[in-house]
Amino acid sequence: MAINGDKVNPTSAAAVFISTATLRHLVTHASLIRHLHSTLSTDIQSPARHSHDTSPSSSLILMPSWSLSPSLPYVGVKLVTYHPNNSAVNLPGVHASYALFSSLTGQTLATMDATDLTLYRTSCISALASKFLSRENSKTLVMVGAGSLAPHLIRAHLAVRPGLKTVIIWNRTVRKAQCLVEKLQKESEFEGVIFESNGSLEEAVGLGDIVSCATNSEAPLVKGGELKEGAHLDMVGSFKPSMMECDDEAIRKGRVFIDNEAALVESGELVGAFERGVITRDNVVGDLVELIKGEKSGRISQEETTVFKSVGSAAVDLLTAQLVYETFMKNQVHG
């Protein structure tokens, strides 16, 4: 396998630990989006994730994956803890570790703090979908939620839609949205982009060419009737049937795409819509791999509403870990 033309031998080195700080120096949202675009159609085996409730509000999730392709000789597993009440103590709700093994020898190649890995991969999948589904001339991004994933989603969407000039952030706690606006305004990479917060979700949604949602809401936030003509709705927050970030009308009026088939049984927006007869599974147009391969058409008009629902996958974790590990090893050789 190779990253940027540099071959990496996954059996030639001792196991390494890649910290969050190191990971942030190894990948950018743009580099990961390019990597996922070129590799997501690789033959990867990903059994259903294991999810165990460790308390009434928290859970442990195990996500294994491996590849049968010579270009991706890895086995990996992500271990995730979900504690939604962590915001009260100013901590992310999701923490994760990733273990990467050689599929050739079974030896451990790397362990890495996968909390940021998850943030990168989730946001970059949304942005990759947006590349196919949002309007190329999109000017306004509405970010629903101001948690740890929000700045990643903003960066990733800007990477594929550099014409975005305004980012509006809404959060249930208004001050949290304001703080994120203030933080992003100070960063030089966003020169020319206007950041603002809006306490009215209805008003904000109506302004968005792209509306991206990252919340753990169990009640619909985005109403389909408030989406502007030609909007693209991106949702990454819900991952179990009790959670939902939009109402049935948004699902009914949109051409719906998913990241993978797990969304059909895990996403509250879709599971609920199926149960209520709003749409059927056959109305889901396709998944991200089909878009990449050209087997399904993305946006087909400037006026249509598009919807992308992502629940995450072990396959994308493996590909992200590949980029992180191989870039790390390449840097070690060149260093």
The number of domains: 2
Largest beta-sheet details:
8 strands, parallel
The CATH topology name of the largest domain reads: Rossmann fold
Element-by-element helix/strand order: EEEHHEEEEEEHEHEHEHEEHEHHEHEH
Q: Strand sequence of the main sheet, in spatial order?
A: 12-11-10-13-14-17-15-16
Choose one word for the global shape: globular
Q: Approximately how much beta-strand content do the residues carry?
A: 15-25%
Q: What Rg is obtained from the alpha carbons, in whole angstroms?
A: 19 Å
**Assigned CATH class of the largest domain:** Alpha Beta
The whole-number mean of residue pLDDT values reads 93
- What oligomeric state is this? single chain
Runs in which pLDDT lies below 50 for 5 or more consecutive residues are: none
The helix-and-strand class reads alpha/beta
Straight-line distance between termini: 20 Å
| CATH architecture descriptor text of the largest domain | 3-Layer(aba) Sandwich
| Proportion of helical residues | 25-40%
Number of strands: 17
Number of continuous helical runs: 11
Output the CATH homologous superfamily of the largest domain. NAD(P)-binding Rossmann-like Domain
Structure, described:
The chain has 335 residues and is of the alpha/beta class. It has two domains: 2-117 and 315-334, 2-Layer Sandwich (ornithine cyclodeaminase, domain 1); 119-313, NAD(P)-binding Rossmann-like Domain (Rossmann fold). Helix content is 34%, strand content 24%. It is built from eleven helices and 17 strands. The protein has helices at residues 20-26, 29-39, 114-133, 150-160, 174-185, 201-207, 248-253, 263-266, 268-275, 288-293, 314-334; strands at 2-3, 6-7, 16-18, 44-45, 50-53, 59-67, 74-82, 94-102, 108-113, 140-144, 166-170, 194-197, 210-213, 232-235, 254-258, 284-287, 305-309. The strands form three sheets. Strands 12-11-10-13-14-17-15-16 form an eight-stranded parallel β-sheet, sandwiched between helices. Strands 3, 4, 5, 6, 7, 8 and 9 form a seven-stranded mixed β-sheet that branches. β10 (140-144), α4 and β11 form a beta-alpha-beta unit. α2 crosses α3 (114-133) and α3 (114-133) packs parallel to α4.
